Amino acid sequence: MSLAAMRCVGNENTLHVEELALSDIANRFGTPCYVYSRKALTAAFAAYRDTLQAHGMLEQSMICYAVKANSNLAVLNLFARLGAGFDIVSVGELARVIAAGGSPDKIVFSGVGKSSAEMREALKAKIHCFNVESASELDQLSEIAGSVGLRAPVSLRVNPDVDPKTHPYISTGLKSTKFGVAFGEAFELYRRAATLPHIAVKGIDCHIGSQLLDPAPAAEATGKILELVDRLAAAGIALEHIDLGGGMGVQYRAEEPAPSAADYLGPMLKMLAGRREKLLFEPGRSLVGNAGLLLTRVEVLKHGEEKNFAVVDAAMNDLMRPALYDAWHDIVKVGAGDTAASKAMPYEIVGPVCESGDFLGHDRKLALKEGDLLAILSAGAYGMAMASNYNSRPRAAEVMVDGEAVHLVRRREDISQLFALESTLP
Ligand SMILES: *Cc1c(COP(=O)(O)O)cnc(C)c1O
Predict the structure, then answer these.
(1) For a designed S-S bond to 31, which of 44, 105, 284, 297 qualifies (C-beta 3.0 to 4.6 A apart)?
(2) Is the pTM for the entire model greater than 0.90?
């Protein structure tokens, strides 16, 4: 979080989320702990809605939150209450959305490797649309839909071969990635889909990558998609909706500003002005990234010959992005009142996991002592959702702040849960 929802107040100058001091949250729920702000989540969703409204396109649009970014039930429930649809990538996510009160007819199902069981389940749930990513998936889906006596609503995820200029692990719209149907093959595949008795061709989908800071690639992709939509219409295949995916970046550091929803969506929406198709969007990170932080406590300070280490109680299993993408998260002290007691120096902020890749931040200039609380900011997206039990570490608690209230939205795991599904040899 690095927004209005977080601020420094009070005598000790402790960091607050909405009306609550992070030090109080740590005392009550322990660390490591993910902290989300209802206000910040709501504001991020409103930014999309307001932009669509400003372009006169709210009525024809559906904002399908990409569940994989943060799939906590309270987060999903909040978005469902705000009127969101959902973009899922597994039946696990389907079950979460339904448990959180989301409606199946606002769900789109993405992913390159849906199993037949998943297709069957989603068909029975009557989801809005399958985003089909290959010719083979189309055939499998058609067959399964036939076997349960249903027609599968389908979009093809088309790969526009546009470079999103982001980290290679989160680029998805280039020819070389595993995602989507090649642009040059999409037209023929639509013609074939239109002949399949158990397939209902509904739309087109495209998602070129994540953490996009420049609106230009998304607009370029939109142009290519629209050209294909018009070519299909001329051939008698009229699509009902255009799904432009997610991918809008968020600001992780001061030097790298992210576009606002208005800046990012504006160029795309201008190209879509006057069109009759419904519009779908699949934002993940931009709805949750800056609405969450990870609260952690300094366990040990180690002053080495070359480097100083601050070993904290959160690790790569709690927040994998630094280890996985070399991602940068701002790390700040929660209580700033007692800096005189320690001297600011560059620290490697690391976890206790047995991997050299287990770091949360390099070279951070902080005045620290053992027991200090730190907040790892902008951790609402792909944080807890990617957490694991590596090193047999129970996963962190998650709480949501709502004004002066705080709700525990996921209990900290118990040690006993770690191996509850395992057994010894007979
Ligand atoms: C991950 C994903 C999204 C969300 O991406 P963000 O960068 O988090 O907005 C949307 N659509 C698809 C198909 C995805 O795989």
Answers:
(1) 297
(2) yes
* Contact of 364 with 331, CB cutoff 8 Å: yes
> Ligand 1: which atom is nearest the Cα of residue 381?
8
pLDDT tens per residue across span 161-177: 898 877 777 677 777 77
Q: Indicate which atom in ligand 1 lies nearest the CA of residue 382.
A: 8
Specify the ligand 1 atom closest to the Cα of 68: 1
Q: How far is the CA of 255 from the centre of ligand 1 (A)?
A: 24
Please state, in angstroms and rounded to a whole number, the distance separating the CA atoms of residues 135 and 29.
49
Percent of the chain scoring above 70 in pLDDT: 95
Which residues does ligand 1 sit against, CB inside 6 Å?
A: 66, 68-69, 87, 110, 207, 210, 245-248, 282-286
Q: Is residue 80 part of a domain?
A: no
Residues 364 and 268 in one domain: no
- Please write the tens of the pLDDT for every residue from 342-401: 789 999 999 999 998 999 999 999 999 999 999 999 999 999 999 999 999 999 999 999
Residue 419 tokens read as: 């191996």
- 210 & 296 share domain: no
Separation of 132 CA from ligand 1 center, angstroms?
A: 15
| pLDDT confidence of residue 320 | 98
- Spell out the residues 6+ positions from residue 196 whose beta carbon is closer than 8 angstroms to its own: 138, 142
| CA-wise closest residue to 205 among 269, 273, 281, 274 | 281
Separation of alpha carbons 294 and 380, rounded Å: 8
Distance from the CA of 338 to the center of ligand 1, in angstroms? 42
Range of the domain at 141: 110-283
Query: How many domains does the chain divide into?
Result: 2
The CATH number that applies at residue 346 is: 2.40.37.10
Is 75 within a domain? no
Looking at the structure, tell me whether residues 256 and 125 fall in a common domain.
yes
Which amino acid residue places its CA nearest to atom 13 of ligand 1? 110
In-domain check, residue 260: yes
Band (pLDDT 50/70/90 cuts) for residue 330 is: very high
Do 394 and 250 have their domain in common?
no
Tell whether 308 and 397 lie within a shared domain: yes
Q: Is residue 71 part of a domain?
A: no
Dist CA 253 CA 125 (whole Å): 41
How far does residue 123's CA lie from ligand 1's centre (Å)? Answer: 22
Q: Which residues are catalytic?
A: 354
Q: What percent of the chain has pLDDT over 90?
A: 89
Q: Please tell me whether residues 295 and 249 are part of one structural domain.
A: no
Q: Kindly state whether residues 118 and 261 are assigned to the same domain.
A: yes
